[in-house]
Amino acid sequence: MATRITALLIAAMVLACAPAQATEVRIKDIARFQGYSDNQLVGYGLVFGLRGSGDGNQILFTAQAIANMLNAQGIKHNRTNIRTRNTASVIVTATLPPFAKPGSKIDVSVSAIGDATSLQGGMLLMTPMRAPNGDVYATAQGSVVVGGFAAGGAGAGVAQNVPTAGNVPNGAIVQREVPTNLQARASLTLVMENYDFTTATRIANVVNEHFGSPLARSRDGASIDVVVPSGFRGKVIDFIAEVERLTVETDERAVVIINEKTGTVVIGQQVRISTCAVAHGNLTIQVSTTFGVSQPQPFSEGQTAIIPQEEVTVTEDMATGSEDAVMMLQEGANIGEIVGALNALGVSPRDVITILQAMKAQGALKAELKVM
Prior knowledge:
- This protein is of the alpha+beta class.
- It has helices at about 5-15, 60-70, 195-210, 235-245, 335-345, 350-360; strands at about 25, 30-35, 40-50, 90-95, 105-110, 125-130, 135-145, 145, 150-155, 155-160, 165-175, 185-190, 215-220, 225, 245-250, 255-260, 265, 270-275, 275-280, 280-295, 305-315, 325-330, 365, 370.
């Protein structure tokens, strides 16, 4: 028997059955001003103090990096005597947030690039963190925290999560500030996270209405040009803060997202349909084979033979809770009515996916269908 739609989808139906209400959100939650952004940093480093789980001697660049480090410390050594099992070469990455000042601390991620089996218990040696232009903006160092482990012996082993990757919380100290100068700007550009022409126009109207002047104009569906009023010249940060606090009524596109691999269905509240009929039934065909034995007559020259006997059974389940397997959906039905009708047919989430695809192909589903 077909199972009912998952609890998550039912919860979405209950919410959608209520009259659709406009959603008002802060501008800062759906858009941001241009002129500042995160910056990605990367560096090459060494993790010491491993318990024999580091790189093998065949990883030549690890031995070379250890030799370079010893040379920098003024230590004479014979490179052929360097053993690397307690050391691992790693790539260190971090995200430098905007307006980070020298002395601020940020988290870093550490990932092995050789054949090390675990970074557990290791210490990251001081590593310069560089931006794409090659400049050093931070230095990283500290104990590596690994969220997994690996152990084994005598041909058997066990591992949990990924022990060759970890983090150093607050492990990098910012050495250089990314220059930004918003205070001198006479105009700004507000960029939306998701493009929508209607929402962009509404943002411009809300800004103009609040300041009582035509300061904002939507350039396209994802950006709004905003002129800094004369009263906020030299105080652009205050102007940005005031704009971000404004609320706007957002608009949504009619979209249905389905994931056939997991059977997940997400339906937006703007989805509507034309009048159509949906029929659902589970057709089960079962083929079974039984084997009989044919014995020859006594004192005959026949032979014992095994005779297969095949049986075919066809079963069609009707809709759950309904005497009729055909459901009529009226034009303009919303998400609650759509999924409620499908739920009355006793369909499973995967059946919903098939039905929605068929409705889209027929032209009854008035929404964009996205398949993940």
